[in-house]
Amino acid sequence: MTILALVRHGQTDWNRAQRIQGRTDVPLNDTGRGQARDAAERLRDGGYGRVVASPLQRAHETARIIAAVLGLEEPETHAGLVERDYGDGEGMIVTDYREAYGTGPVPGAEAPEHVTERALAAVRDIASRDDDVPTIVVAHGGVIRALLTHASGGRLPRPGERVENGASNVFRFVDGELALTEHVELVPAEARG
């Protein structure tokens, strides 16, 4: 069994502006760096032995901050953890994106099912490398949401809930299957700050 704490990267200026980032490589802002330090403190007593991150700079910097606070080695990167490609939707304000596309297809965007398959393959690979070392995995809201949906059988996130910047959700990886622990951090969409 492997314990995996999936942490969403800290805030960026695009998050603050409620702009769709996707694979656009936007850096953390100072609030995001503080959220990374806060996440590290919340995870301090979890016995974590390594950190793996998406190669996008907002996730990788979050991972570096967490590793430094916890006295862990420099984070590894895993390409399978990158955020969903939102195609023509990247850079749009969230409300404009929803108005333009609703739940329909977005030209050039990665299909949600593919995000789930890719994210599951990534966490399987990470868990298989050293299955007895609790691991912090720093990724993106779309990736973590896909894993939460898969592991909860579609129960989470509930309508209107989202994964907050800096939130950590703890999973168990047992016999090739991903399962949730009791530790789930979701906030209502209207709490967006």
From TrEMBL:
SMART domains: PGAM. CDD domains: HP_PGM_like. Residues 21-42 are annotated as: Disordered. Pfam families: His_Phos_1. It comes from the Bacteria. Substrate binds at residues 8-15, 58, 83-86. The active site is at residues 9, 83. One of its GO terms (molecular function) is phosphatase activity. GO terms for cellular component: cytoplasm. Gene3D superfamilies: Phosphoglycerate mutase-like (3.40.50.1240). This is Phosphatase PhoE. It comes from Microbacterium album.
